[in-house]
Amino acid sequence: MNNLEMRTLQGALATIGPEQRRSFARSFQGDLLDRQSDEYDRIRSIWNGMIDRKPALIAQCCDAQDVAAAVRFARDNDLLVAIRGGGHNIAGNATCDDGLVIDLSGMRQVSMDAGARMARVEPGCALADVDAATQAHSLALPIGINSTTGIAGLTLGGGFGWLSRSFGLASDNLVAVDIVTADGKLRHVNESQDEDLFWAIRGGGGNFGVVTSFEFRLHPVGPEVLAGLIVHPFDNARATLRAWRDLLPGTPHPLSAWIVLRKAPPLPFLAEEWHGREVLLMPVCYVSPDHEAGLRALEPFRAISKPIADTIGPTPFVAWQQAFDPLLAPGSRNYWKSQNFTDLNDAAIDTACDFAARLPDPQCEVFLAQVGGAMNRIAADDTAYADRSANVIMNVHARWEDPSLDRACIDWARAMSDAMAPHSNGAVYVNFLTHDEADRVTSAYGPNLQRLAEIKERWDPDNRFRVNQNIRAGAGLTAR
After folding, report:
1. Radius of gyration for the chain, computed over Cα atoms and rounded to the nearest angstrom
2. Which of 3.30.360.10, 3.40.462.20, 3.40.50.720, 3.90.1150.10 is the CATH number of 224-439?
3. How far is Cα 193 from Cα 73, in angstroms, rounded to an integer?
4. Of 125, 194, 127, nearest to 162 (Cα)?
5. How far is it, in rounded angstroms, from Cα 73 to Cα 80?
6. How far is 376 from 380, CA to CA, in rounded Å?
7. Using CB atoms within 10 A of its CB, is residue 14 exposed (0-12), middle (13-18) or buried (19+)?
8. Model confidence pTM above 0.90
9. Taking a C-beta distance cutoff of 8 angstroms, is the pair 340, 428 a contact?
């Protein structure tokens, strides 16, 4: 084994010698990859193609004991550490230059107790792993809308999707976790055991430790839901958006109706003349088994203007969760901006349409997610996830392939977010923050930030878990 030059928390490089590496390897069952390893370049790459970082060492964990050993190794050598789950991570916080990456992506077991409607999920799982296990019993967890998303990051930041209006966030359905804290100890945490830590991880991200298993409460869903796309011409987008907005307050909780403004992909049910043209997509999902009630609830949405296409019908929930995966394949360059809205006023709608009319790349899009419902029935201080007033969450999703478009795509996303900000409620979904938005962590946590900082002081006073949307111990301010 060769010496490794590894980044410390203070930013310097420290030499990790062969004996230190051998000692770590003796306590570790998984693979330890350095820059000489054959698989290093493949393993170090992450979903967002803009991120090209080179850790000094990647610890591919097999179980919780491996995670604890890796955390202790980082602590004993004062190393910079990043935690990698199984999904996207737009900000690139799943990796770091010259530090240690604790890679959980191989920990992908889902254990079911269908009778109790409970699931134990390991942190390397993608949503597809969870859906496959739960839908075998016609059960589901409210999680995101792309099956390639990682369960760990999604849950720790809150986690919303098609089921959230009925059943709340993924983190609202979290019953317990096993977590390795900064001292290298594995703890079982729930509402009665280290309850402050349990409060913090339900929305507070990866600031407090490395979760090695999640225990979730499940709900009866499927195996079929009523779902599909309504597609409108972009020429009528302003009127369509206003009509959609006006219907939202009366929408029953089993129904979610979202909006996507983008150029039409070559969908088989769209006439070829529409491919590549700006359109307004309205994906809808009704999750109650009473499809007749769902069709009645959808009638006003289907009656808006004259759509180009309407594909609504009974659909396997697993298939609906995977329907948009091709639009989020790994390797493309991605930059996001997000805002939360309690109400979407006419000026916000006009602004959204103005920017959607000048997309800098055919893969760029704006989505407006209808949320609320069960999400908003929980008090803002019941969990770390603070914004329980939002009824719409916007993600300005810039996505492209050619690095020469970096400036145009990033500038477009930033300009749109800035233009929409005066109409927002001032909050933001932490999982949509990019690498350059440390100043917006305050907006993500609002009145909960001070308590989060106090809990950080107790559980991670040295800020060892800092490669994230960071909360600084004790200060109530973001770390720089």
Report:
1. 22
2. 3.40.462.20
3. 26
4. 127
5. 11
6. 8
7. middle
8. yes
9. yes
The CATH code for residues 4-103 is: 3.30.43.10
- pLDDT, averaged per 10 consecutive residues of the chain (480 residues), comes to 93 95 95 96 95 97 98 98 93 96 97 98 97 97 94 97 97 98 98 97 97 98 96 96 97 97 92 93 96 96 95 96 91 96 97 97 97 96 96 97 97 98 97 94 95 97 96 59
The two domains 4-103 and 224-439 share their CATH topology (first three levels equal): no
Helix (H) or strand (E) holding 33: strand 31-33
User: Looking at residue 473, what is its pLDDT?
Assistant: 81
454: how many CB neighbours lie within 10 A of its CB?
17
Domain boundaries, the chain: 4-103, 110-221+447-459, 224-439
pLDDT tens sequence across 273-327: 999 999 999 999 999 999 999 999 999 999 999 999 999 999 999 999 999 998 8
The sign one gets for the Cα dihedral 28, 33, 36, 39 is positive
Task: Please answer whether residues 131 and 147 qualify as being in contact, where contact means their C-beta atoms are separated by less than 8 angstroms.
Answer: yes
| Adjacency order of strands within the sheet including 210-217 | 110-113, 118-121, 210-217, 174-180, 186-190
Specify the fold of 110-221+447-459. Answer: 3.30.465
Full 3-state SS string of 385-419: CCCCCCCEEEEEEEEECCHHHHHHHHHHHHHHHHH
| CA-to-CA dists, residue 367 to 110, 197, 261, 422, 454, angstroms | 30, 33, 6, 18, 35
Paired strand residues for 357: none
Give CA–CA dist 458/335, Å, rounded.
Answer: 34
Determine the length of the chain: 480
**What pLDDT is attached to residue 87?**
86
CA 430 to chain CA centroid, Å, is 8
Query: Both tokens of residue 97?
Result: 């230059």
Task: Supply the mean pLDDT for the chain.
Answer: 95
Can you tell me the distance from the alpha carbon of 412 to that of 397, in angstroms, rounded to the nearest whole number? Answer: 10
Inter-CA distances, 408 with 336, 403, 404, Å: 13, 10, 8
Amino acid at 438: A
CA dist 143 and 221 (Å) reads 13
pLDDT digits (tens, 9 = 90+) for 41-62: 999 999 999 999 999 999 999 9
Direct distance between the N- and C-terminal alpha carbons of the chain, in angstroms, rounded to an integer: 34
User: How would you classify residue 61: left for phi > 0, otherwise alpha for psi between -120 and 50, otherwise beta?
Assistant: beta
List the structure tokens of 479: 């770390």
